Amino acid sequence: MEGRALYKFSIFAISEERAVISDHSILETPMKLLIPPFLRNSVCALFIGLVISLTGANIQSAPPRVLPEGQQHQDQRLDAPRTLHDYFPFTQVSSTGEWELRQEQIKRRILISAGLWPMPEKTALNAVVHGKKEMGDYTVEKVFFESLPGHFVTGNLYRPAGDSLKNGLQNGKRPGALCPHGHWENARFYDLGEAQRKQLIAIGGERFESGAQNHYQARCVQLARMGLAVFQYDMIGHSDSKQFQEHRREPRAKMNNPELGKWGFVSPQAEARLQTNFGLQTWNSVRAMDFLLEQDQVDAKRILVTGASGGGTQTMMIAAIDERINKMLDAGIAVMSADLFRQGEFLKAGENASENPHVQYPGKTDKPDQRWRLSGVYNYGYNDSLFSRRVHDILTCLAFVKNHKKWQVKSVGLVGLQGAGAWVAAGSAVAGSAVDRCVVVSEGFRFADLDSSFDQNFLPGIVKYGDIAAFLTQSTAQKLWLFDSDKKLQAQVKSSRSAAGKTDGTLVIYQGEQAQAQQSWLSFLLK
């Protein structure tokens, strides 16, 4: 060994069990095969600097612990899943510009969570308005139309009449209002009952018994008398909207079916494509706006939405997404070791994280009709998925490395192996030019193959937007090394990189045996 220098490098490796660091001392002669001369005495580059290698297998059997044995991180992400009953304080903004940016972020999140990004094609409404009733100073008509071919939205259209016709007019146009209802049983049809009507009047909640009988209808009547055209429409599973028997639905195993077109609306297959009650209802609200704006005299510049409870939720959703509504180391290789969320020291002894945490049923106060809380769409409405949190941790590591005051990082490499390929593909897609080289060994992983909405790799909506191919085609890493035998996927990645102006030399699609893959991607990183 005398006279033969040793070079030391480290790999930051993340697996489904934990992340570890492996230090390797390699003789100068073999390393000449991998490290070009100008790098042999270079200062801190991330594998040409720091290589972050995410892998599904431990490189050394007993990695050093950060915390004492038996002690767990006090990380708030380890808390029980959040629900609608938890506290969500408003985050203050300091300027108009800051709010505009946040507004756009909120809008995009809503559209994606509802499965409406990009917006579906708007087909013919084929609206039917009939059964007009003259009520003196207002009229009521029955309405149904198709928000999607074969799916109907139902409701009532209120318009001013008689003495009310003079109200609200500007240049021959009048305001319009959408009135989504909340979670009262049979909301558009419900009757509060005589005893409760009298009590409501007695405490000043209403002035007249007719208004106390059904406050939804009373609101629409009053708005019509004020000169507005008002459309009150049913939430799915309510009143006349009976194509879906329930408004909020619990998961049902019988709805699971991997065959295209044969899965049910409450299933992992549907949720993976963002086909949900919430998304359908929000789309119904968008089409309800279309219907309202088609009515004679309605002023497109004076549109409002108003609702309470679930109707309040839809009011916020449509106001956010529809712009038609007037609204508001000092030298050598730098080394870092980290556990991604719910890995390594994020876990208790013997614990694994094969599933996303989710609400357990039944709870102490749960009733049988509350099993809808088991739905993945409910859970992910309040909680980030394990997948997204792990990708967030990867991005945090990248930011830490690139902005470290002492390290002179020249480039960054991400490597995803043995179960972590999709994480790295997603991280590279989001990180953009912050990643210089990216290695993805996907092992044929596809989000569409997951059979549980709570699998640790489940990500709502990713199948709708192209599965793992969406991340790989969106990756703007200067160089990409890919090991996936799917010819269609390979062609998609080649095409996307070509369209982005990246030459063939920036893409390596490995065609060899898995046993020799490591030598290939190491050479790719160190060229």
What do these coordinates show?
Strands 2-1-3-10-11-12-13 form a 7-stranded mixed sheet, with helices on both faces. The chain has a 6-stranded mixed sheet with strand order 4-5-6-8-7-9. It contains 15 helices and 13 strands. The protein is an alpha/beta fold. The chain has helices at 28-31, 46-49, 96-113, 194-202, 209-213, 215-225, 268-272, 277-293, 310-321, 376-382, 386-402, 421-431, 467-474, 487-499, 517-526, and strands at 6-14, 19-27, 50-54, 128-134, 138-148, 151-160, 174-180, 229-233, 298-305, 411-416, 437-441, 479-483, 507-509.
Strand order of the largest sheet: 2-1-3-10-11-12-13
Q: How many β-strand runs?
A: 13
Helix content: 25-40%
Query: Could you tell me the mean pLDDT?
Result: 81
Question: What fraction strand?
Answer: 15-25%
Oligomeric description of these chains: single chain
Q: List low-confidence stretches.
A: 1-51, 55-59, 327-335
Radius of gyration (Å): 29 Å
What gap, in angstroms, lies between the N and C termini? 27 Å
The gross shape turns out to be elongated
Give, in order, the helices and strands. EEHHEHEEEEHHHEHHEHHHEHEHEHEH
Please state the structural category: alpha/beta
* Biggest β-sheet strands, sense, barrel: 7 strands, mixed
Per DSSP, the total helix count is: 15
